[in-house]
Amino acid sequence: MLIPMSLAANFISINLFAQDKPQEIPLWPNGAPGFENRRNEPELAKDYWVRNIHNPSITVYLPPKEKATGAAVVICPGGGHRLLVFNAEGRDPAVFLNSIGVAAFILKYRLARDTASPYSLEKDVKQDALRAMRLVRSHAREWDIDTNRVGMLGFSAGGEVVALIAYDSSNANPNAADPVDRMNAKPNFQMLVYPGPGFIPDIIPANAPPAFLLVANDDMCCSAPTLKLLQGYRNAKIPVEAHFYTRGDHGFNMGNRSKLNSIKTWPQRMADWLSDNYILVPLKPGEQKSK
What we know:
alpha/beta, eight-stranded mixed β-sheet, globular
């Protein structure tokens, strides 16, 4: 399914007004385990960012029913684990994904490097990512989602959040008291845009999800770890597509502010990958992959 960028851009401008107040659902109804007493603390939001997140949640963006493909993506914005770039790396990609028929869910995860944060990446942020994937799959029937086509999209530090669970088995606990925690949390695919260096394993496991990687070569933070990921995937013989742009630096978001044509149009590369890898329209029984 090929969506021209001009069409997608028009859809974004229209759809932003259609989803002024998307539904936001806390990951846990009574607050994050062990921090329930902090769930009512107000977030701090200004301009492009959100901070002081103590009641992690997903914000739901569903495509129009006539466009829905059944695919879904949990989006992890970046921000150095000190804040979330919620609009440019959460809302904007969610609206773009909706324009190609993909349900999108922006994860507000706890910030391990926010001022006086009591949270750790390896425990609390990982817990948020696992719960978000399980929560989305638990609503599959309501949101018309195929549980075998649920992936993750991570920008910068959000790529590290994805890495916390993408290479883990993260399978369901059938004996969990909470039915949501009985769901599988492993993403079926991952898309990483200038992902941070944290939590990339030295050896990519054989059960790692297929990956789409994108970064600028002059990104001093994140081009090297992206190259490491690419090589690891090649060594593991797991499907991967990578785009290394000559220029773009770090933090170009969805490309809207860039004067570089390659950066401005990168979301179409992601749409192509989703289509070419049968995530938008899965193979029918007995159907062969195109070459």
